[in-house]
Amino acid sequence: MRSRCVTRYVAGLVAIxxxxxxxxxxxxxxxxxxxxxxxxxxxxxxxxxxIIAGDVSALKQLYSTxxxxxxxxxxxxxxxxxxxxxxxxxxxxxxxxxxxxxxASDPGTNKFVVQVEIRSAGSSGDETVYVTAGQVWQQQGExxxxxxxxxxxxxxxxxxxxxSKKIYPPEADARAEIKEAKExxxxxxxxxxxVFGANWCYDCHVLDLAFQRPDLAxxxxxxxxxxxxxxxxxxxxxxxxxxxxxxxKGGIPGLAVLGSDGKLLYSQKxxxxxxxxxxxxxxxxxxxxxxKPKTP
Length: 296
Description:
Layout: H1 2-16, H2 20-23, E1 30-31, H3 42-53, H4 56-60, E2 70-73, E3 76-78, H5 80-89, E4 92-103, E5 109-122, E6 125-140, E7 143-151, H6 174-188, E8 191-197, H7 202-210, H8 217-223, E9 224-230, H9 238-243, E10 254-258, E11 264-267, H10 281-291
């Protein structure tokens, strides 16, 4: 009976960790982003240190065996060995850990959503990857241990932990905004970048966050007038998607580039940006450089 109760308890905790998009937002949790000088939960520090050191034994000590830790990924359920192997396999040279959401609901239990930035040793040199994980920690004697985990795989772009930002104002007049962008582009010798999407779309938020990166933002702002076009649930601005040859069936976000003269230069037809979460910053930079105005 106790075993079944524990199983239901852990399953309930994992349900709490149901995160939107690719495990984006934990419903009902308080936002609690860490900042320089903020003390992080000691067990999280131990977890981070063990990963950086590549210490398999120390890392495994932080996983519960009774009840056995429950690990949920896009591939399904995994065990502690698989999760330890995942983190050690990233071969981190350095690791930045941000607690973006936290909740201590029961005595002896802490829940976190952490965003991890890892600079790892890749085959072609150092590379940076991002992982978001929901974790449930339980105090077992004098040691805190992980009893439930839900995490993403490694991504080359930082993944948003909230989709609350209103990238696509529902009341916006898209036609008027495109007209204004064309006029500005003509005066400033820029292109117009149309981004078709919706606030519910996780990958639209991934792309928006990527465009704020220090290596991408100057290229974007210096060469493009950007217009976000809200497509709702496929029931808004469909005439504009047709006009600029970005089919809704290709998924969103969907991009189109107009020249300073308003001529259509590029339109997304095959969902090239639909899975923005799987893109690399290098691919986005290549795209922006390819379609920016040619130097006179």
